[in-house]
Amino acid sequence: MSRQAAADALTEYAQLVGKSESTEPEHWQASDLITDLLLGFDPPTADLILHRVTRDLDAERAEEPPLFPPAD
Fold first, then answer.
1. What value does the CA radius of gyration of the chain take, rounded to a whole number of Å?
2. What DSSP designation does 71 have?
3. Which of 23, 34, 36, 46 has a CA that sits 20 to 30 A from residue 16's CA?
4. Model confidence, pTM
5. CA separation (Å) from 55 to 50, 52, 58, 60, 64?
6. Selection from 46, 16, 13 nearest residue 30 by Cα
7. Residues 7, 9: Cα–Cα separation, whole Å
8. pLDDT digits (tens, 9 = 90+) for 16-67
9. DSSP string, 13-57
10. DSSP 3-state of 70
C-alpha cells in the first residue's frame, strides 16, 4: 500500500466511523484506526506487528516527508 493510499484509507475510516471521528485530528484518527486493526489479532501477533512497524518506521522516517501536519 502506498502512503497516499494509507492516507485515503484514514479518511475513509474517519467518515465510516462517524462525524465525531472525522472532526478529530489526523493523529487521533490514525491511532483509533490502528487500534481497531490490531484488535483483529490475538495479543502476541499484535505485539509482533507493533514491533515490526516500529522498526520499519524508524528505518523509513528519514526518507519520507510527512503527509499530515505535526501533532499538537
1. 13
2. P
3. 46
4. 0.76
5. 9, 5, 5, 9, 15
6. 13
7. 5
8. 888 888 888 888 999 999 999 999 999 999 999 999 999 998 888 878 788 8
9. HHHHH-HHHHTS-HHHHHHHHHHHHHTTS-HHHHHHHHHHHHHHH
10. coil
